[in-house]
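Hi C.,

You asked whether I'd gotten around to modeling the 292-residue construct. I have! Everything is below, sequence then structure, no commentary in between.
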Amino acid sequence: MPTVDALLAQARALGVERLDAQLLLAHRLQRPRTWVIAHGDAEVDAATAQTVRADLHRRADGVPLAYLTGWREFHGLALRVTPAVLDPRPDTETLVDWALELLAGELAALPAPQVVDLGTGSGAIALAVAHGCPRAVVRAVDASADALAVARANGERLGLPVQWLLGDWWQPVGAPAVDLAVANPPYIAAADPHLPALRHEPLQALSPGVDGLAALRSIVEGACAHLRRGAWLLLEHGHDQADAVRRMLAAAGFDALTTRRDLAGHERCTGGRQGHGTACEIPQPARAGASR
């Protein structure tokens, strides 16, 4: 029977990062990663070793680790993840942190702030906001019934009260009663050279098509019909899309426009507050894509 170290050596030969290989072994052996590190000479039974080798080959082919283990930690929450949803990125925690700061700051006087997460996927953003701000009334929207089933199961397992809505962006949200809207929509242009590397994740969660700004534009264009005056809209976007998103928000009557950077220092999230102007129509900007 192969040993733990032998399987790690096979992972190295396949080009799989050591941390990923250790986590895959820990998952299949139902042991903590520290055990894997400390027991390199431990033998692995043939059936488990075969499963681990299959995992390693899939990881080498670019399948996200979260799909292989079924789990992803996000903002301190353990989320079930399947190929029906995007693998949540640490950079998206920037969006959650910003939302929680607003709920604890500018929106703190609201006893039950109405929060909407557009394009929720696994439910990561909505659940992290519900966990971090229990007084918030959180709704989450997704156009994929399969994705919404994953999100709903995560919410039930974590015991967090989020209302899950099936529909396209704002369509199921209803009348203007939202105090804070957050979204991590697809924003990679169809021709972006980075897209093929993400082939194992749902395309509809990554790219809106030819124009990487199309989903962002739809969200901004629809916002004024659903946001209260003084409400905030926070958007994750591609590293080179911040200027375009700021222009969209300004044209729609948002003020206090702000952009925040991700862990790598890239401009990743842009938001604004629904102002007192009347602009609700967005001039069509030059179309451009971005890498995620």
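If it helps when you're writing up: Residues 46-60 form the longest helix (15 residues).

Thanks,
B.
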